[in-house]
Write a structure and sequence with these properties.
The protein is α+β, with helices and mostly antiparallel strands. The protein has 4 domains: 9-141, 2-Layer Sandwich (Beta-Lactamase); 145-275, PAS domain (Beta-Lactamase); 290-451, Reverse transcriptase/Diguanylate cyclase domain (Alpha-Beta Plaits, 2-Layer Sandwich), CATH 3.30.70.270; 476-635 and 673-738, TIM Barrel, CATH 3.20.20. It is built from 31 helices and 26 strands. The strands form 5 sheets. The chain has an 8-stranded mixed beta barrel with strand order 18-19-21-22-23-24-25-26, surrounded by 5 helices. Strands 2-1-5-4-3 form a 5-stranded antiparallel β-sheet, with helices on both faces. The chain is elongated and about 120 Å long. It starts with 8 loop residues before the first helix and ends with a helix. Residues 462-718 form the EAL domain.
Length: 743
């Protein structure tokens, strides 16, 4: 409630508005801006940070929200020294339970030196462990009410006018509790006219029962002072003339009459709308605005509560097992970017509805991030029960979902942490274990994976590899291997693909499938990618010079989405090509479909600049995700790589052959050359050649190999392709092949 070091209105507003706003949310923020006070969210404690301050602070105190929150000493300097004691009490959360309120009044000095009274009304919020963590409240300027109450006791006519124009209801009662004054705001709030109410007892009209008994006890017994305290404000329920109740803020002041009798002045503010807004603000702190699910903080808090309940049940031997599920949406970002935010929201709501419909009624549902959800199922006796729940959920999530003119299938990976009756894991361990199982499900291609102890070892390995990867390039642990691809027209080696490899001193050869993902997630893909680009261009430029037969050998390098959107790739390409002497048209950048949909406008512009350098562009893994004909037309690509998943299924059915043939025909129609990857069998090579594919790559011809062993591998691969073409009755040295690869 006091002396909070803030971060600023804009930051928190941006955090609340990171998700595209609905019309309802816009109304909500508009209402916040119209509240006649300073709304705030702040950490508990005298030195706690302000996390949100509404812009009204500028009108009331003279500082902008940004200025007010940027200076950690400003509040303390603005607070009147005589009010430090009041604020010290308000700052302490030790006497207030989460969900409780604290209301006090104190003076603040404005920017231009004026002293103003403020009423501070705050609600205490708890963190994920149930400890007092945040104050959510409002500062209201009550200077005029203070002055009016003082002047009214002296029969000040000017104070009378202020009272009548005040926005708060004002009521004065005599020593017997009869109403002796009633302003216009009171008429509006409570429905009683001044003429009808004067002379009636307060306890018979608007006063709640608890306050009536306190008043009837008599001021001489100190009941009212004990209940309210000097300068204290209470929230109570009041009654309108029609019998309906409303929440009000009540401030009570004793003002003796001319004979020295005890009179009381009351200010009452209708806080119905503010309570509604404050409830919305609190919901924003703990709820996902799109789905209404709990957010991560609330989920962890409720999970902690559940663990506490189970501990008590364990003593009574009535505890049962439960399960924590983490559900990750595969490829959600490409869907979001390619289809737009409205379609992405529709997909998320579909997932939310299916989670709600196909998990037990008592489950707690949460949205942890853009593409991750969590489920706490509190009653799951055994692993078989958890398996049944997750199998049904996985089946329902896989069902197609309509999104605009397009049908989408939700691809989800579910990680499960089952906790049997004797389990004593912490909140952090349960969340980490379920997340690790979800990652394992994603990597293995399974829909559901249960946490196993071995995953902890895998997580430890992952953390150590992440740390080691930061220095892998400078320690010469990263090297480049080359896998050639061969023309199906003349059997010649037309190029090589440069592949990053990592030889770790302790773990040995680390799989690219493992470390490339880590490099992407940590940002180390930038340094790894630049190293591969520079080394491969240098190697192939030298090979072209030293081996006349392969003077036109091309080089392909994979480029990640992160490299492409970074903005430095064009300059890096220009520098490397100039330093190594490799012609731009000898280089092909292979782009995944994910990279193409990352940021279409920026990507298209950057690819056009790269293509202008003579560098070729290829779409890798075509057909496996979300790319479409539109992408092939929109971006300046000239090569399409047929994914190994299509190649592997060629022998299974005529349908797979027709599908692969359709992709190759599409490429030819658009003037694109095609390279099939992952070829391991002669039969697949013959099929692809017969379907019109331009080139092939795979273990059938050559495995990835170091540069010094590349020359004999190229010769052996050419012989293998040539023999296959002859055996299948196809001619070699086909017309136009040289022109095709010279483009």
């Amino acid at each position: 409630m006091v002396s909070r070091t803030p971060t600023g209105h804009e930051a928190v507003t941006a955090a609340h508005r990171a998700h595209p706003e609905t019309s309802d949310q816009r109304v909500f923020w508009s209402l916040l801006d119209q509240v006649p006070g300073i709304l705030y969210v702040a950490e508990v404690g005298f030195e706690g940070r302000w996390l949100y301050v509404s812009p009204q602070v500028e009108d009331l105190l003279g500082w902008t929200a940004q200025e007010w929150t940027a200076d950690p000493t400003l509040f303390a300097r603005a607070l009147h020294p005589d009010d430090y004691g009041v604020e010290a009490r308000a700052a302490s959360a030790s006497q207030t339970l989460p969900g409780g309120r604290d209301v006090s009044e104190y003076r603040l000095t404005t920017r231009d030196g004026r002293l103003r009274w403020f009423r501070d009304d705050a609600r205490l919020l708890a963190d994920e462990l149930g400890r007092p963590a945040l104050w959510s409240g409002v500062l209201t300027d009550v200077t005029e009410q203070r002055r009016a109450a003082l002047r009214l006791s002296r029969s000040d006519q000017r104070a009378r006018a202020i009272i009548d124009t005040a926005m708060d209801a004002y009521v004065a009662i005599d020593a017997q509790g009869a109403i002796i004054d009633w302003n216009r705001a009171a008429e509006t709030v409570f429905g009683w006219t001044r003429r009808d109410i004067l002379g009636r007892r307060l306890v018979d009209t608007i006063v709640p029962a608890w306050f009536a008994s306190a008043h009837l006890a008599g001021p001489e017994e100190g009941a009212l002072e004990e209940a309210l305290g000097a300068g204290r404000v209470l929230q109570v329920s009041a009654t309108r003339r029609d019998g309906t109740e409303l929440p009000v803020e009540l401030t009570l002041w004793r003002t003796d009459d001319e004979q020295g009798g005890a009179c009381f002045s009351l200010f009452l503010r209708d806080i119905t709308e503010r309570e509604r807004l404050q409830a919305r603000l609190t919901a924003h702190a703990y709820r996902d605005p799109l789905t209404g699910f709990a957010n991560r903080a609330l989920f962890q808090q409720r999970l902690g509560d559940h663990l506490g309940t189970r501990a008590a049940q364990a003593e009574l031997r009535s505890a049962t097992g439960f399960a924590v599920l983490v559900v990750g949406l595969d490829d959600f970002r490409p869907v979001s970017v390619s289809l737009g935010p409205e379609a992405a929201d529709e997909l998320l709501m579909t997932v939310a509805e299916r989670l709600t419909a196909h998990t037990p009624d008592e489950s707690l549902l949460a949205r942890l991030s853009d593409d991750e959800f969590a489920v706490l199922v509190p009653e799951v006796p055994g692993r078989a029960d958890a398996q049944q729940i997750t199998d049904e959920l996985a089946r329902e999530l896989r069902s197609s979902s309509g999104s605009g003119e397009r049908e989408l299938t939700v691809r989800a990976s579910i990680g499960v942490r089952h906790c049997p009756a004797g389990c004593d894991a912490s909140v952090e361990e349960l969340m980490s274990d379920a997340a690790a199982a979800m990652v394992a499900a994603t990597r293995s291609g399974r829909t559901v994976a249960f946490f196993e102890d071995s995953l902890r070892a895998a997580n430890l390995r992952r953390l150590r590899l992440m740390e080691a990867l930061e220095h892998a390039v400078e320690r010469d642990e990263i090297y480049v291997a080359y896998q050639p691809y061969f023309s199906f027209h003349d059997g010649r080696a037309r190029g090589v693909e440069a592949l990053a490899r990592w030889r770790h001193p302790a773990y040995g050869e680390v799989s690219p499938a493992e470390f490339i993902v880590l490099a992407e997630s940590t940002g180390q893909i930038q340094s790894v990618g630049l190293f591969v680009l520079a080394r491969a261009c240098r190697d192939i430029a030298r090979l072209r010079r030293e081996m006349p037969r392969h003077a036109d050998l091309a080089l392909s390098i994979n480029v990640s989405a992160r490299q492409l959107v970074d903005g430095r790739l064009q300059q890096q390409l220009s520098t490397v090509l100039e330093e190594t002497g490799l012609p731009g048209d000898a280089l092909t950048l292979e782009l995944t479909e994910t990279a193409l949909v990352e940021d279409e406008l920026d990507v298209a512009e950057r690819l056009t600049e790269i293509r202008a350098m003579g560098v070729h562009l290829a779409v890798d893994d075509f057909g496996t995700r979300f790319a479409s004909l539109a992408y092939l037309q929109r971006f300046p690509v000239d090569t399409l790589k047929v994914d190994r998943s299509f190649v592997a299924l060629l022998h299974e059915s005529a349908q797979e052959q027709r599908l692969t043939g359709a992709i190759i025909t599409l490429a030819k129609t658009l003037g694109l050359r095609t390279i099939a990857e992952g070829i391991e069998e002669d039969e697949a090579a013959r099929w692809l050649s017969g379907l019109g594919c331009d080139a092939g790559q795979g273990f059938l011809f050559a495995r990835p190999i170091a540069l010094e062993r590349l020359a004999p591998v190229l010769r052996a691969g050419e012989r293998r392709v040539h023999e296959g073409l002859v055996a299948s009755g196809q001619t070699t040295g086909g017309t136009g092949d040289g022109e095709l690869w010279a483009r």
